[in-house]
Amino acid sequence: MRRILAVVLLLVLLPAVVFAAEKTKVDRYEVTYETAESSCTILSVSDPLRGYGGALPMELPAELDGYTVTVLGAGALAEHSTVGSLTLPASLKELTGYTNQLPEKLEQIEVQPGNPVYHATDGTLFQGTELCLYPPADPAESYTVPEGTVFR
Question: Exposed, middle or buried: residue 34 (CB in 10 Å: 0-12, 13-18, 19+)?
Answer without folding.
Answer: middle
